[in-house]
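Let's study my pick:
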Amino acid sequence: MKRRDDRGVVASYIPELARVDPGAFGMAVIDADGNLFEGGDSDTAFSIQSISKVFTLTLALGMVGDMLWRRVGREPSGTPFNSIVQLESERGIPRNPFINAGAIAVTDVILSGHKPREALGEILRFMRFLTDDPTIVIDEAVAASEQRTGFRNRALANYMKSFGVLDNPVDYTLGVYFHHCAIAMSCRQLAAAGRFLAHLGRSPVTGHAVVRPERARRINALMLTCGHYDGSGEFAYRVGLPGKSGVGGGILAIAPGKASIAVWSPGLDVSGNSHLGRIALETLTRRMGWSIFGA
């Protein structure tokens, strides 16, 4: 992969992300038996950004169940991840939990009844539990960079607040949102965190159920249809797996019953998804016959 010149463009609207080496590339695969296959910069921590939305969605569903869908929809947006257009026409209800507005609404649910620091602690504990790794932390420099420059996210949050979609003070909700997007993980850790979604909601590490099988299937369905913003259809067409991207260049992909996969390449395509990451996953699923639509 390092021989390719078409690497995409590193996110620059978050200044701290603009400093990342555009030549980095890592990949990790954990199969159903727990075997780890990895290559490149698979042990280098990077900002997972919107991939955190998979895990905050899981937490919020655990807290309020299907009542969550009163605040956020389940349909593809077909618009950029930070668009305000649909909020204007749909009375402040975000189209799905993976666009920025939807993830802010989900974060508000997690925050309710907690102080911001407590809500962040809950999210971090969940990530450490899934990976069996207590070393996972928030990159405070990235979080501070997002807080300084997150003007569009503030606009989204304030617009939703005006329609009563958010219960908590906007600054509190955004503070938690910026910080969970700034969680730093390696491909190895991220693949471990996603394993419960590849195995009907059960953690292969502990044997305990993280979510019910039905909920795991539904989270995977949302990842397939909405996980790559306005590039979700292209990702489903090319890769054929549920997946969630982040503007830090990471992608978490799930091959149900087979493997959890994480890839990282910081250069993004026009939709804000890892360019080489998608190409690598397309190659992997084709060779392994892992597409959910058949070999």
